[in-house]
Amino acid sequence: MKKLKNYKKKLIKEIVGFVQKGKDMMPKMEGIMKKMKQEIPIFFSTDDNYIPCLSVAIHSLKENSSNENNYRIIILHTGMSLRGKAEVKKLEDENVKISFQNISHITTKLSKELALRLRDYYSETIYYRMFIPSMFPEYEKAIYLDADIVLQDDVAKLYDLDLGDNLIAGVTDMVINSSKEFKDYSKYGLGIEPEKYFNSGVLVMNLREMRKAKIEEKFLYRLLNYNLDTAAPDQDYLNTLCKDRVLYLPETWNKMPDFGKKYNVNELHLIHYNMYRKPWHYSDVPYSEVFWNYAKETKYYDELKETLTNYPEEAKKQDLVAGEKLVEYTKQIVKQEFKFADIEDDLEDDDESQDTMVETNELV
Questions:
Q1: Angle of helix 351-363 relative to helix 215-225, nearest 10 degrees?
Q2: Which terminal residue of the chain has fewer beta carbons within 10 Å of its beta carbon, N or C?
């Protein structure tokens, strides 16, 4: 057991060290940003398969951008093709620049642990946002967006929020608040009141405070020492690690079509086509017209329409079954003897965890 714990301590040290090493290899942005303009860092994480949807998201961001800002989009990935990168780079314009950061030097060290609790439509890309704070020390604040979103407003309005000493700004997850089973999971499985459980697909990240709070190290510590069952892997980690330090935003900044309050489409700042029902899979998704209005202005419109037309009935059945399984899965987790709600808030109580945290902090 002692050898196993020593291995985990060594692995955490290596991973945190690799984060900055990988950052040093990141290609420099071409040119120098004008000093008079605010630079807004916006992170996405994706792979080649999601490029059509990512392109729609970026196009919507551009359409609602302001000439008063420079928008720096950084795509986190573990091996996008040169062709894929080239296609995404074509979306650049004068004040929206795009770069790519390969973080495979981190994920290969954690491949087994990261994949252990993945299920359904999740991939390792959901964890990439966890490494942003230490990987980009030049930023005190950043925005993270899932690729299955469209914007109807300037994302700079999110960036300009005063976060104070909050670690995260986000929107209460309406999926969690949609059923008793999910609410029980949040309250008893994670130790978080359902109305305080946020969705991690749209975040304003207080990178300065997250570094001070050692969020990345604590994530690695929990992953390597516990790796508990979760309903939403990265989201559950973020919610438990950022508990009581969250600035809650209006639902209109992360509107989930099938959940929560119904709004007039013009009231929405950002639409997030989360869970299984995507406009490119189902024709009756609320607010899908917004997605298609932006999609038709990209080169991927026909491809996405073809995906919608050919989405198999068997896949739709699997989506339905997956939703039902998720409800049962959360019920099982709540009954488990040890779960997130049972982890002490302070991970530095014992001597060994204290040593581990001190060592990783020094490396960051």
A1: 130
A2: N
Classify 191 in phi/psi space as left (phi over 0), alpha (psi -120 to 50) or beta: left
Q: How many CA within 13 A on the CB side of residue 81?
A: 7
Q: What are phi and psi of 212, to 5 degrees?
A: -65, -35
Lowest mean pLDDT, pick from 88-97, 147-156, 262-271, 337-346: 337-346
Q: Which residues contact 41 (CB under 8 A, 6 or more apart)?
A: 72, 74, 136, 139, 141, 142, 143
- Residue of 228, 256, 223, 298 lying closest to 61 (CA atoms): 298
317-346 pLDDT, tens digit each: 999 998 899 999 899 999 999 998 988 754
Plot region of 260 (φ>0 → left; ψ -120 to 50 → alpha; else → beta): left
Residue type, 130: M
3-state secondary structure of 268: coil
Amino acid 233: pLDDT: 77
Q: How far is CA 143 from the centre of its chain?
A: 10
- Segments in 46-127 forming alpha helices (H): 51-63, 82-89, 104-116
Contact 58, 90 (CB under 8 A): no
C-beta separation of 42 from 142 below 8 A: yes
- CATH fold of 2-26+36-363, please? Spore Coat Polysaccharide Biosynthesis Protein SpsA; Chain A (3.90.550)
CA dist., res. 189 & res. 164, Å (int): 29
Domain ranges of the chain: 2-26+36-363
Q: What is the reported pTM?
A: 0.84
Q: Is 283 left (phi over 0), alpha (psi -120 to 50) or beta?
A: alpha
How far is Cα 117 from Cα 112, in angstroms, rounded to an integer? 10
Q: Map residue 17 onto helix, strand or coil.
A: helix
The set of residues, in sequence order, having a beta carbon less than 8 Å from that of 267 and lying 6+ positions away, is 252
